[in-house]
Every structure is written in C-alpha cells, then in structure tokens.
Amino acid sequence: MSKKRELILAFESSCDETSVAVIEDGHRILSNIIATQIKSHQRFGGVVPEVASRHHVEQITFCTQAALEEAGVTYTDLTAVAVTYGPGLVGALLIGVTAAKAIAYAHHLPLIPINHMAGHIYAARFVKPLEYPLLALLVSGGHTELVLMAAAGEFEIIGDTRDDAAGEAYDKIGRVLGVPYPAGKEIDRLAHLGQDTFDFPRAMLKEENLDFSFSGLKSAFINTVHHADQIGETLNRENLAASFQASVVEVLTEKTMRAARQLDVHQLVVAGGVAANQGLREELAEAIKASGLDLDLIVPPLRLCGDNGAMIGAAAHIELKKETFANLTLNAVPGLDFPYRA
Amino acid sequence: MKLLAMDTSNQAVSVALLDDQQILGEMTVNIRQTHSQTLLPMVDQLLKQTQTAIETIDRFVVAEGPGSYTGLRIAVTTAKSFAWTLNKPLVGISSLALLAANIVDTTALIVPLFDARRANVFTGVYQWQSGSLQTVVADQHVSIETLLARLQLLAEPVYFVGNDVAHFKEELQAALGSNAHFVGANHNLPHASVLGKLGLLAEPVADIHRFGPVYLRKTEAEVNWAKTHDERGTESYVEQV
C-alpha cells in the first residue's frame, strides 16, 4: 500500500491578497491561487482595511475552488487545513480564519494556525531544504526583523525596527516621489538608474545591537525634497531613489552580516515583500562573498516573496508534525509576533 | 429539509437548526463577544445536542445585513463556506427582516432598526400581508430625523423592534405619540429560528462565490474617492495573478 500523500489546504488573507494553496509534503506547490486587491487600494494610496475585508469575503470560496481544481485534489485527499491567524489587519485575517475553520470543520480536518511571518520564512523551503540554526531577514511593509531559528518551527527575534518597517518607508517616500502604492518595485527600478548622491543617514549603524530605524531616513528624504521645492529646485528622481535605497540596503545588509558573524549559521533566508528588491539581493550576495563566511543566501522566487498561501502551507507542514492544532475558537491575532531573544 | 440558520449582525449570536417548520434547536447568546470565537463552537454544540451531522444539512441561511461590518462577515463567511464546501444551497435574509418577523399577529407597520451611530440608523419598514412578511420600505441607512419625518407622514401605528430601539425611545415617542409601539425584550432579540423560517421560503443565492454581506453603506474611503473619480470603465479591482 502506498503512503498517503500529505496535502495541506492553506489560506492567507492578512492584508490585501486573498490566497489559497495546496501544498504536498511542505515543499511541492500543487496550486497557489493569489487574488490581489492592489488596483483597488491604489485608489486610496494604501490599503484601506474595511475595503480589504470586503474584497476578501467575495474572493475566498472562489480562490479555494480554484486551488483545489488546479491541484486536482478533493477534500478526502487532504491531510489538514492551515490558515494565517496573525499578524495583519484583523478584519482581513478574520475572513481567512473563518473560512478555513468552516471548511476544516465541515470535512473533519485538523486546523493548523500559522504565523504569517513564519510563512514568509518558509517560502524559502520551496527553494531548498532548510538547515538549522538559520538566520532570516524579514522585510515587508509591516516588519523589519532579524529572526534566529534554532530548529524547525522555532523563531526568536534578535533584531527589530524601532519605528517604521522598511517597506513602509518605501511607500512613504514613494508618495513624495509620486510613485503609486506599493512603491517598492518602482523605487528599486529608479534606484538602478541613479547614483547615491544625497548621502542620507544610515541609522543605528554604529550601534552594537541588531536593531533598525528608518524614520530618520524617511524624514531626511522628505525634508530634502521639500527644501528643494521651496527654493524652486527640481531634484533628480533617480538619484533620490538610489540614495534612499542605498541607505536602506546598507543598514539591512550590515546588520544582517553582523548577526551572521555572531551566530553559527550556514543559511540566510531573506523573506517578505521587500525580499523582491533587487538592490537588497545584490548587496547581500556581495557582502556574503566578501565576508568569506560559509553562508548560503536563500531568497524565494518573486511570486513567493509577496503574501501567498503556498508559504503558509510550507510552514504548516512543520506544525503538522508538531501537532499544533487550533480548536473552533481560533481567532485572528493582529499583533501576533515571535518571541524576542531573552 | 434540514436547515441551519445563523446571525451575527449585531451583539447577539444566534444559531438554529430546523427541520422544515419544526425547530430542532436554537441557541442565542447576547453578551459582548468576539463572534469569530463564539459562532462555530455554538454551531458545533447545536449539532451535537441535536445529533445532527453537518453533512445532512440541506440548506444554510444567514442574516446578510445590514449590521456591524465585522460581525456580519463572520456569519456570512461561515455560512457561505459551509454551503459552498458541502455543495448545498445558501440563502441570505435581511438582518432587519428577521427582527421584524419576531412581531406576529399584527398587520401594523413594523420598523426594525439598528443604531448606525452619528444619529443614523439602518432600518426598513415591514408588514404582514396574507401571512407573509412584506417589505414596505426597503432597508436603508438613513438619519433618525428622516425616518421620523417619513413615519409621521404615514400617521399609522408602528412597532419598533430591536435592542437599539432603546437608544431612540424618547425621540420616537415624541415624534409619533401613541402611534409608537414598543415590544418586549424577547422580541427585540434576533432569533435564528425566525431567520430559518424566513429562509425556508426564500430563493437561494444564484452564485455563492459572489455572495457577501449587504452593508448598505460604502466605506468612507470609497465615498471620498468617488467624489473626485468616475468609477465607470473599471472592470474589477481584484485580479488573480
């Protein structure tokens, strides 16, 4: 008799993407349906939580059906249902949580609650098997964290932003440059066409800790542009973008390398929406090469850097083994976080 | 026909199981609560107490709104997911209609209402005609002032229903005098069994995927955006990538 396949139906709805995936053994994507609301929120210059929640309700069963059909599986084939229960927008999270609970209950399947940030890290599992201890740099619109994983499914924050997340800073300066939300991709592109001529501050670079700060950089950027406006001067957009990105990337790279040197790790996972940033990928690769460290840089493919159900299914594979199951009272936890290192 | 009905439009959570007109069980909890934590455990308890397998449910009925946005989405998403995943019909019923249907044995006008804050209400006007509850004025979001002006014009006895009626009782009485009638606590509370009976007769939704709450209000962001933009020509704001 052949071994039963391990198939997880995974839900993600923490922000402005409704996504449902079917994942086999934690590392094979049978389907990964993503419905994005970017066009909707572009109207408002950022994600409006109530609008996001409304879109999720209209997408959730549709995406689930597409995921099952594309994977060619039915409920009796499934091993478990997994869902992001935080962090994120509470109203948005609730749609995935509510649908996943109902579907798991209707088909008598175990329900696995997943931390969205664990999902981002486990997106790397689709590239290759992960080896522990492992260092992860999580950069997105809501987070900028260095996470140490001592073992599978164990997460500890060793560095964090004191104010804005890196992705948030991108969106805020994007507004100043007139780049539509989400601004990261366009600023990355502009940055590659310009030079670091403005020499914006590199916050907390000289401090021993592994923490970040981006609000000073954001203010310096905005002040520079406003000052130029007042004296009727037009600044070069490419150089502004390049200078901003140089500061973000240098701080992220420097702190990450500092952590890598302190720890006995051989893999560095870069995850979250900002992991799609070419400038960051390039500089990290160079820094690792220059350091002589035996450190394997793993960056998930672009499609898996943004929010998606596949990464939730990959993280759920680990929690399934640990039998981390939710009961019927599972609720969204918008402020869910990993523990900080003692 | 076995029918499971659920309502989380406002503070109370109510679930009921019916076999045609027969109420097999009903559970209503009226405390401040997190609906996402209470609804499914209540459904589970009801099914267990009535020894019913969820697979044997023939129809799911949900109070579709108006009401608290987040609250509505819990029952709507649950009912919609159940109906879709078990391949059973789904019926959406006005959250105001199920309150109106609490009041029987009268042919007077029935006005259920929810406090929508800033002196506004979600309300509609209902009436029993030949044994069936009819909508006289469609559910809407309206200022309490406008509602009262309209009801004054009608100059008919009106039954106000809903827990939020208490917030406006003095204004209602002042405006309508002896035409304003109020009902007891049990009638002000939503009962999923009443929802179920309405759902028994109603037409199931044609496309479960597209089904969502009836909010009766656009979000503030959309309203502001629409002041300076034209929505025509926009195919869809959500796309699969």
Automatic annotation (TrEMBL), chain A:
This enzyme's EC code(s): 2.3.1.234
Catalytic activity: L-threonylcarbamoyladenylate + adenosine(37) in tRNA = N(6)-L-threonylcarbamoyladenosine(37) in tRNA + AMP + H(+)
Gene3D superfamilies to which the protein is assigned, alphabetical: 3.30.420.40
Sorted UniProt keywords: Acyltransferase, Cytoplasm, Iron, Metal-binding, Transferase, tRNA processing
Binding site for Fe cation: 116, 120, 307
Superkingdom in the source lineage: Bacteria
Ranges in a coiled coil: none
A molecular function (GO) term: tRNA N(6)-L-threonylcarbamoyladenine synthase activity
Stretches assigned to the Gcp-like domain: 29-313
Similarity annotation: Belongs to the KAE1 / TsaD family.
Name by which UniProt lists this protein: tRNA N6-adenosine threonylcarbamoyltransferase
UniProtKB/TrEMBL annotation, chain B:
Transmembrane segments: none
Residues in coiled coil: none
Record-linked InterPro entries: ATPase_NBD, Gcp-like_dom, T6A_TsaB
SUPFAM superfamilies: Actin-like ATPase domain
GO biological process: tRNA threonylcarbamoyladenosine modification
Highest rank taxon of the organism: Bacteria
Gcp-like domain location: 33-225
Pfam family, one: TsaD
Cellular component aspect of the GO annotation: cytosol
Protein name, entry field: Sialoglycoprotein metallo-endopeptidase
Naturally occurring in which organism (per UniProt): Latilactobacillus graminis DSM 20719
